[in-house]
């Protein structure tokens, strides 16, 4: 079969997740109302996205007004770095990265669409995966990235999938670790993440109405839970 719409530049991780969500009788790369859906299962659309959600700001609002839609976002809980030599006699190496991903990393792309998650037609599946990051040597990237560039992400395993129907579902995962009033530093500590991700999480929670600003500590904003049901 020839590649469908959008498949020519598709990476392995995206293709593997698409295959997992496809069921007998479903279709892939289907044109729907001027857009292309990765998978169509009955009336439900499945959109698999491995990068920032900014490109979806026009697509998602249009589709979820008419169809139930599952947005799938993979996060590498464990990653293996696979380096492919640039010479025929070279040896491919594979080593485990010391970094580990968590479900909270979804706050980074969600900062582009923080209010969409509470739409009744939108479900977010955060898939914690084990993946191979395939890298090749590129002389042009020597200064900026040490010479090795990632050219593909390959799915090894799906460890766990979090089904998120609203922003409050994500907040509930870390709520017990937070004081009654909290800062972005408290959020970062609760997630075991960087302050930057704590700031993105606070923005998402505030925009979705799950948390609100109640004061300041020095230059840091202080947040509290709102009456949004959890």
Give the secondary structure arrangement, pairings included.
Layout: H1 12-21, E1 27-32, E2 35-41, E3 44-48, H2 59-64, E4 69-84, E5 93-96, H3 107-110, E6 122-137, H4 142-145, E7 148-164, H5 167-174, E8 181-182, H6 184-191, H7 195-207, E9 211-217, E10 220-225
Parallel strand pairs: 3-4, 4-6
Antiparallel strand pairs: 1-2, 2-3, 4-5, 6-7, 8-10, 9-10
Helix pairs in contact: 6-7
Give a verbal description of the structure.
Helices cover 23% and strands 37% of the residues. It contains 7 helices and 10 strands.
Rg for CA atoms = 20 Å
Content of β-strand: 35-45%
The 3D shape can be described as: globular
Strand count: 10
Largest sheet: 7 strands, mixed
**Number of helices in the DSSP assignment:** 7
**SSE-based structural type:** alpha+beta
Uncertain residue ranges: 1-8
Question: What is the overall pLDDT average?
Answer: 91
Distance between the termini: 47 Å
Query: What are the secondary-structure elements, in order, as H or E?
Result: HEEEHEEHEHEHEHHEE
Helix content: 10-25%
Q: Main attributes?
A:
disordered N terminus, 230 residues, alpha+beta, 3-stranded antiparallel beta sheet, 37% strand, 7-stranded mixed beta sheet, 23% helix
């Amino acid at each position: 079969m020839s590649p469908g719409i959008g498949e020519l530049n598709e990476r392995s991780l995206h293709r593997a997740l698409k295959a997992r969500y496809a069921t007998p009788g479903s279709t892939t790369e289907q044109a729907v109302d001027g857009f292309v859906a990765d998978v169509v299962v009955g009336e439900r659309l499945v959109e698999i996205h491995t990068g920032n959600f900014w490109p979806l700001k026009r697509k998602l609002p249009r589709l979820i007004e008419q169809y139930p839609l599952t947005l799938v976002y993979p996060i590498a809980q464990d990653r293996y770095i696979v380096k492919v030599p640039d010479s025929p006699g070279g040896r491919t190496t594979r080593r485990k990265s010391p970094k580990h991903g968590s479900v909270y990393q979804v706050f980074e792309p969600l900062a582009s669409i923080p209010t969409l998650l509470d739409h009744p037609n939108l479900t977010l599946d955060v898939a914690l995966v084990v993946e191979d990051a395939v890298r090749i040597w590129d002389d042009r990237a020597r200064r900026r990235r040490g010479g090795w560039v990632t050219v593909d992400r390959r799915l090894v395993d799906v460890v766990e999938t979090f089904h998120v129907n609203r922003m409050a579902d994500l907040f509930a995962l870390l709520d017990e670790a937070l004081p009654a009033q909290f800062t972005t530093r408290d959020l970062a500590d609760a997630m075991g993440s960087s302050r930057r991700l704590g700031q993105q999480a606070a923005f998402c929670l505030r925009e979705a109405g799950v948390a609100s600003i109640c004061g300041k500590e020095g230059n840091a904003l202080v947040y509290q839970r709102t009456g949004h049901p959890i």
